[in-house]
Protein 1
Amino acid sequence: MSRNTSRREFLLTAGGAAAGIGLASVIAVEPARATPATMQEAIRKVVGPARINPGRVKLELPPLVENGNTVPLTVSVESPMTAADHVKALHLFNEKNPQPDVASFRFGPRAGRASVSTRIRLADTQTVVAVCELSDGSFWSASVNVVVTLAACLEDA
Amino acid sequence: MASALINVPARAKRGEIIEIKTLISHPMETGYRRTQLGALVPRDIIRLFVCTYNGTEIFRAELHPAIAANPFIVFSTVATESGTLAFNWTGDRGFSETESVAITVD
Amino acid sequence: MSRETRAMQDDDTANPGMLWALEGESLWNRKTGEAGRACAECHADARVSMKGVAARHPAFDAARGRPITLEQRVNLCRVDRQKAPPLAYESRELLALTAYLARQSRGLPIDVASDERTQPFLDAGRATFYRRQGQLSLACTQCHDDNWGRRLAGNVVPQAHPTGYPLYRLEWQSLGSLQRRLRNCLIGIRAEPYEYGAAELVDLELFLMWRARGMTFEAPAVRP
């Protein structure tokens, strides 16, 4: 900084540098993230080449999340859950967490109801996808877009 | 904390669909967090949850780091006979926990 | 807090804080210390003997001549009566015991004493609440009295009534005490946080509970 730098400029620069360093360290620490493309790959890995039809799955998530660390979620499929006609599995995926997989739930006719509730983590505003596999080999899916805000004051770890 | 909180109706009618709520204490460390000094905190999660009813598996969940800490899983089953519902969680670092609950079915 | 967070709190079978409260119950019944005594031996059933206690803390302790928190009360009992070492602040056991004790006050109105004995400490706590602190030079009142209900970054600024401590904070993914939360705020305004158990924090805790007087105690709560 030249001697002629005014006090105001100095403070702005120092603040900018500090903010820059702060931002840089946050970015450096960020892990690689899933993308919509890697999520599709993850879905394919679980589902195989079969066609995935939209529908039949009900995915319930709050549209605006208070804290991405714990997001309540319920996923269900209307199904008689008999030996002949039941949901075999429900899979959950996301597109912006470090990994696209969230969980897989496996059912049989003894489940009574094809419904699971749990709590998941969401790193950012993103789309969550649920894919269900039926006993007849067909696949169905639903997706929900969730807005995730970050906490204002973070505790130092 | 108490290891697990399980909620199952003590009694049910044969053929009734009952809801089972499970909550287990576990940090579900993602493996993506870093300490203040920049060191990566290694992954430590529950990977599998299995429920059996008198020995027969009725539900299974495969979990990834995106499941929140202190995993909460609610699912259903048909009350078929009196007996024992057993719950087993396994994961990283040899984590294994089993709980059992008795159920009376009329 | 959102509807979903409220639902998580109200269901004892889904509230993660209950994991600590249940452990607290078993600690309550466990013999400990050189005296080999369990809390239950003197206090019997906590559901009866501890009802209302958490809602009245911080409470004036005559021996120490100042108000003390529930955590400090538990540790005093451990040291004096059970001849056991005090539990560290924010340790699993201390959180479990205080969660269990706090659970026994659920539904009751907050009722900390405001009398000639506690007045100087209430005044000290009030002074802290109104004092600008930290690099951001913010006083608690500026957010929690003047701007509650508005948003700071993504979150709604609460009125800061500690009606549910110790509570499960989604941000922490763990149960924690009011003092942990206060230290978080101090870190947030870039102030040096007071040590756990410091007089400044106890006095502030007393003031905040007095400020929330009459409100329904709802520990162990769940908060974002």
Note: The longest strand of chain B covers residues 95-105.
Protein 2
Amino acid sequence: MTQVSRRTFGKQTILFSAFAALSFPGKAMAFLDKIEKKKFLYRDDIGYAMKSLFMTYDGTSKYLHKFNDVVGKTQLRSLQFHINNGLEKEYVDHYIEIMEPALQRIKQQVETEGTEKGLSSLFEDNPSAYQLFERINVNPNQRSFPCPYKDLLHYCETYLKTFPMKWEEVCSKWCTPTWTGFAQKIGIQVSVHPGETCEVKLVSQS
Amino acid sequence: MSAQNTNQETQGRMDSEKPRDTMNRRDFSRTLFAGGVLSALTLITVPDRAEAWLDGNFSNREDLGDALKVIEKTYGDIDPYPHKFNDALSKLLLRDLDFAARKGIEKEFVEDYVARLGVLVNKHLKKGVDKFGDDVFLWAMFERTSCGYQLYEYIDIKKGKRSVPCPFKPMLNHLAEELGTLKIVWEDVCSKWCTPTWNGFIKGAGLTERINIKVEPGDICTIKVI
């Protein structure tokens, strides 16, 4: 058996891969297009995002700060204000109303692609969701995510003492009516199961 | 050098320094950025409770993976426009302002924001401004707070002035194309949200006799202490 040095073996493996790819143009294009398809790699403005990330995650005073701190606190603050003024229902209705054009587009996609499209459009494909939830667990007919509000509400009330609403009100007066309202518009039905990990499940429509 | 040692060294230095009427720029920067204004302010009021800002624990975080995945997802999403890290927040603020403006309660909405979220700022800011100068107000509104660095793509810092790319103007344009349902216009955002909010913090902190700001809205918004 011929002895092959490690360096030669590596070189030959790479050359073989390249020749194999060139022999199958479709596969070669898939290989060569990898960077092309990663739009992320073409962004010139990621540096700003990384700096914001650093400033956020380097701050551990009082509690561990996260990328969704401000959007979560801002939402809680707005909800508290509207609850205080008896406007929480209209606040939800307004959100659903202004989203109507987008919801109608999603409805058409649900009709052609199925109910999972409805869930993905509300959650993992929606920047307003994936920039709010620390992560979104995707399972058939179900999405789950750590509740962004429970801990934040606790911190706000502990350190600011200006958030008297209960966490259950966030679920019952904001999240649940918003999601069920969106779902109704796009032609699906969901059940919401609040918790430290919140679950939103498709209700079968037989 | 550990974050704890740095904080103790900072606290020790600040405890031993006497206030000075004049402070050169190097000392000014060191005083502000070594401990953070709020930590400096709490030292002035409660010396035992200096808290750190940018306390050097980034590399100890175990939850960075989720944040990095969101950045990759955000910046890989260019349809129908290149998304940015502040998308959700700017959309939320615009949506909220639209609702408040429709109900005619935008003034109360701003006042509530200042009162409800600005508790610590309102309590401590005046002492910081008295001690270290007017620029502390801008520091507290922008680079010191996550409400600044999670909203503005970047913050250009000069003494007495901050400039930021307006997060709302492009987003309003995107929403006009995508939805066409918001009633507010960009000038409403400047006149009914941003400017009154900053002025609200000046008032809440008891600084109306001392600080006036000039806001120059634009693609790059500039806020100056005058």
Note: Chain A touches chain B through 60 residues (CB under 8 Å).
